[in-house]
Design goal:
Elements lengths: L9 H20 L15 H5 L11 H12 L21 H13 L10 H18 L14 E5 L2 H16 L4 H4 L8 E6 L4 H9 L7 E4 L9 H13 L3 E8 L11 H10 L3 E5 L24 E4 L12 E5 L3 H7 L9 H5 L18 H36 L3 E3 L7 E6 L3 H14 L5 E5 L2 E7 L7 H21 L1
Parallel strand pairs: 2-3, 2-4, 4-5, 5-6
Antiparallel strand pairs: 1-7, 6-7, 8-9, 9-11, 10-11
Helix pairs in contact: 4-13, 5-13, 6-8, 6-11, 13-15, 14-15
The protein binds pyridoxal-5'-phosphate.
Length: about 475
Amino acid sequence: MTAHGPAMSPDEFKRNGEAVLNWIADYRADEDGHRPVQSNIDPGSIYEALPASPPLHPEPFESVMQDVDRVLRPGLTHWQSPDWFAYFPSNGAEPSVLADLLSSGMGVQGMLWATSPACTELEMRMLDWTVEALGLPEHFRFDAPGPGGGVLQDTASSAVLACMVAAREDATDGQSNIDGLAQSTGPLIAYVSTQSHSSVEKAARVCGIGSANLRLIEVDDSFAMNPDALAATLEADRAAGCRPFFICVTLGTTGTGAFDPLDVIGELAEQYECWLHVDAAMFGTAALCPEHRWMHEGVERADSWSFNPHKWMGATFDCSCLWLRDATALTNAMSINPAYLDNPATAGGEVIDYRDWHVQLGRRFRALKLWFLYRCVGLERLQSMIRHHVQLTQELVSWIDDDPDWHRVAPTPMTLACLQHRAGDQVTSAVLNSLNESGSMALTHCELDGRYTIRLSIGQWNTTISHVRAAWDRIVSAGTEFTSSS
Ligand SMILES: Cc1ncc(COP(=O)(O)O)c(C=O)c1O
């Protein structure tokens, strides 16, 4: 027995663990308890409700759990609610929740193959499985000949940063890591559309490219990148002595769910020797169903491909897949070998050390979440969830299009509908604010062509037609209320 004793005895651990699991199961089943869907507490109230100092002596586990309900629960926004239509979903299916718990219980740290071979090798196999599940090219698999493979990142933001660093090193023959971004070959320029996610601009800032060297390419009527505008900008930059080095294609933009034309942009990337990164964070999951694999046209030219199983697919946050057609540039850019990480397996060169595939050194056993999800749910039920959500969205689209007061702004290729009230921005924003304040559902907005636009994103695991119908009825009646009062 140590002087400090166990944090919990095995019996206490089992008893308390059961209480936690019961809490989680009850929370997830409690649809009525998910109101208000978005927490509406005053800023600072949770902070103030918590003691200013940590306890000196242990407290009963029951009182900790009571405070989860009493203090924290009012400040929870219920992402698992079937009335969740905000941002994008963050589905966390039960098998994945349990896998997360197991990962914490094992307490494994998988920075090197040697620090837990199962962590690395399950991850490699899960990335291979996911290539097959999505119908992506074989060259992303570890068991295919060639230098490709995949890795779990925490988020799509980290994935694009890692790839931009790899592309930067590729474009400067590995010199920027050593000498800094000496711009002797002319400034490095990256390209995205005006509708791309802000994480790409953040990556450009963080890795020293700078926002000034990120070109925001205009979009067409469907809010997808205009490849002619991209071609003209690439040409002008090259003529001006700049070095185009990175293009990010978004398959499913955050604002409207638009799909940039990957095949045409891929040709430009090849012509201008740019790294081609694909950000399919949300809608990449749809490719679980063969009928949605049209989005892969041109995939063979992608240097890197990322999507988030933690959005729509059912893996708990965080879990973001990234594949590289050739991982060498990434591992060259990220590899650094202090003596304290030396080990025979790394020296032998036959293992994957995932610390070389991203910025951070330490890493969790995230692959368990995918393994449990695949094994306990199976591909068929994942496909039927996707088809169900697409079907729900098509129903919603038909209601919007039949309504005289509401206008659907962008195409709805997948599960995100964008709408504006014909009476103008004031009514559209009043509807969104009143519904969010009512606690009955959660919505977010974006700005399209300078107009305030409601985004209604469908994709929570338990959302049914009655939730979508109720959401639409609430929108219509709030719209009527605000137009008659204005
Ligand atoms: C298209 C797209 N890319 C990237 C991201 C960033 O995702 P993450 O939170 O995993 O960094 C999002 C988030 O919604 C997104 O919609």
